[in-house]
Amino acid sequence: MGGKRRKRTKIIRVKPKLPKTFECPRCGKVSISVKIKDNVATITCGSCGLYTEIEVPPVFDEANAYSKFIDMYLEGRLQIKERTNENTEEENEIEGESEEIPHGQVE
Ligand SMILES: [Zn+2]
């Protein structure tokens, strides 16, 4: 058996160089944005309002800061500051509940 065929499986993945948005561990949406300034990464979720700041080494980029944030979040040692503006309205009303109770008993 000769003639080994060289299989060239070329998987071309179009990867964005540096994704600026990451998945939020709380709401699951890809709406986390990371900004680094003065060794402090500011992490905000544009969806659920999660907001926190973590210290990062100068070599960290956004992706590094994000993974550190995830670690800290999962370990529960993250101070999460909410960024909700007037979101205190609670809607506990259940709509669409019909009160049609079939009568099976005839007295
Ligand atoms: Zn979120």
Explain this structure:
It is a single chain. This protein has 107 residues and is α+β, with helices and mostly antiparallel strands. It has a domain at 21-82: N-terminal domain of TfIIb (Single Sheet), CATH 2.20.25.190. The chain has one helix at 62-75, and strands at residues 21-23, 30-37, 40-45, 50-55, 81-82. Strands 1-2-3-4-5 form a five-stranded antiparallel β-sheet, with helices on one face. Strand 2 (30-37) and strand 3 (40-45) form a beta hairpin. It is flat and about 85 Å long. The structure holds zinc ion. Zinc ion is lined by residues 24, 26-27, 29, 45, 47-48, 50. Residues 81-107 are annotated as: Disordered. Pfam families: Zn_ribbon_Elf1.
Give the topology, please.
Blueprint: E1 21-23, E2 30-37, E3 40-45, E4 50-55, H1 62-75, E5 81-82
Antiparallel strand pairs: 1-2, 2-3, 3-4, 4-5
The structure holds zinc ion (ZN).
Zinc ion binds next to loops.
